[in-house]
## 1
Amino acid sequence: MPQIDLAGAGVQPATAVAKPKVVARDVNVHYGEKHALHNVSIDIPEQAVTAFIGPSGCGKSTFLRCINRMNDTIASCRVTGRIELDGEDIYDRSLDVVQLRARVGMVFQKPNPFPKSIYENVAYGPRIHGLAQSKAELDEIVERSLKRASLFEEVKDRLDAPGTGLSGGQQQRLCIARAIAVSPEVILMDEPCSALDPIATARIEELIDELRENYTIVIVTHSMQQAARVSQRTAFFHLGKLVEQGPTEHIFTTPEDKRTQDYITGRFG
Ligand SMILES: Nc1ncnc2c1ncn2[C@@H]1O[C@H](COP(=O)(O)OP(=O)(O)OP(=O)(O)O)[C@@H](O)[C@H]1O
Ligand SMILES: [Mg+2]
């Protein structure tokens, strides 16, 4: 990993982590005139879950979208600073964004299966990325992805049925299977459980815990309990700034910043 120059005003030192997968330095985001993110620096470790928490509008989704360049799709959005994936600048002009988004997958708040069969929802990515040489190979990827998303047993007899016909929790697991199918290295989840009931939420949380063995996971959540349950590291955002970050236990028990303390004790947000 190349040495990154942290000199310069206003740069927060990111607390170092073992084996960072994603390294962000001094990231600023503007939507037109609006300065939505200020000098965000963070190291996101591999094989761990990092939670982004903070009040509505503080920039959690904005920063999450920087990590796979989803903000490129918003015309007014301008991103500056540096973000590296395995030491490689993801904003480098020679970088293939389609390839980046296969390496850094995303799961959204509202389950959004394609209006296609369960099978096709999962097969779509591997097919466009040429990951299977034959139908048998594709079948195997679909089955493996559905198993990893702990959905296979529930849908194995109806793979040709529409994905949109599943329950909300099943649809979200289908979206996770779809994200996994292209063998990403990082999975970004933006409030993946906010549309789910407690039972479906518990299943997704268990799944996230299993997935962290193989992936780097970043989850945005409004639930402090969820952040405490599923993450090893937590970053607290407030008014476009990353106020505090560190081991989850530390953030929830002995936060250093008053704003973090107020948020986790429910005083605002
Ligand atoms: N597409 C956009 N165009 C203009 N402004 C935007 C856009 N998306 C977000 N913003 C602004 O950027 C700031 C950060 O928004 P963001 O969606 O990242 O917050 P958030 O922390 O994810 O909030 P929430 O918890 O409500 O999802 C807000 O002030 C928001 O209004
Ligand atoms: Mg958001």
## 2
Amino acid sequence: MQFKIQVVVEDHHGETLTEDVLTLDKSVDGKSLLGLSLLESKLVLKQLQKTIVNQQADHYTWAHRCCPSCHKKRRIKGSSDIQYRTLFGIVTLSNKRLYHCQCEASAAKTFSVLNEWVPEHNSPELQYIETKWASLMPYGLTVDLLKDVLPINESLDAETVRRHLHKTAQRQDEALRDQPRFISGCQNDWARLPRPDKPLTVGIDGGYVRDCQSRKTNFEVIVAKSFSKTKAPKRLGFVQTLDAKPQRRLMKLLRDQGMQENQQITFLSEGADNVRDLQFLMHPESEHILDWFHVTMRLTVLRQFAKGVCHTDPDTGEELLNKLDSAKWSLWHGNVDQGLDRLDDCYWLCDDTELRYSKRRKLVRHLSDMITYIRNNAHLITNYGEKYRYGETITTAFVESTVNEVVAKRMVKKQQMQWSRQGAHYLLQTRTAVLNGELRDHFERRYPEMSSDTNSASFQEPVKMAA
Ligand SMILES: [Zn+2]
């Protein structure tokens, strides 16, 4: 049997026009698919899109044919074609070039009618879906999936999707320009503010991705995640060596999280210099803490070595373990000097050529690194035990998972994935926007016609037609 699909177009004067869209031959022999096949659904959508877009463009052109002041018909200079790319295929549009009316004050003599409506030849929703999907999965896979389910332009390739994603990220970065770098106001202003919400916690950490320029090296990306007891978490990410606006970025994160100027903020970080620079001087009510997770991770490594020493020299091994536990206990209570003393003891125990242990030199190096690490970050070490008892956050173990969520899952899953710094940075912008649930808002701000208020209002349930 045949199914004829037609569109009945009704303009605002109530005049109607019927256009054939497509005729489908469907057999009823019980051997073929019941209902629309994927291919047919794509054909229907594509044809329907073509009809609707052309009708809209024709009406728009017609409505702009006359001068808005004197209502005289403008003369036609010529016309050119636009290839308008949508999620439902490419539609060729005829773009009329008209002469401005003599009564209009305009520098240019002519103008193209559709340019104002569609200055870009990619529909915003196409760019949105491309960017959203490519933020979550590889570019090539994005193209495959889009082609699987939509009658999208057959020549769409990974490079085009990448370009569109980069453009979106550039616009996100441009929007940061209006973002202040520091908290505004002074102590007096802040004191007058209402009582703020519970403290915010921001964890900052670094992750590594493979550099496409020199195959054996990695470069660092910084990720941060903010938490509050009352709101959903927000993430940010950037390439450290590339980004000139890390503080604005962090400020935006805090504002999006609903930070108030007098709200207390706890920054937790690994203490590495590059990460640390970011958080200072930003917020009057902020506290900076060396993340307990990183301290304890290093101590765990040292404990493994000490256990190894136990095999060849049980007495020294036991002594090492005791001293390491004691160092941990001291650091847990914020007692840096005592912790350093215990670590020094460990160092001197191991810096002895008489000690029989195959990895002795490695252990000595690790101990020396640990001592330097604690010394350099002494000012960030707090009484963790006390904070823990009060239910405060003392670890960025949750940020480790952010590195995984923001970076690893998309950028280092496969060993062969390599990135340019710029490409990685752009992807981090759109990816965090997707994970934060902000990408759609970003598009709607730029393309108000995408917002649901504009679109859903004109949707009506179909009316059953009489036979
Ligand atoms: Zn006129």
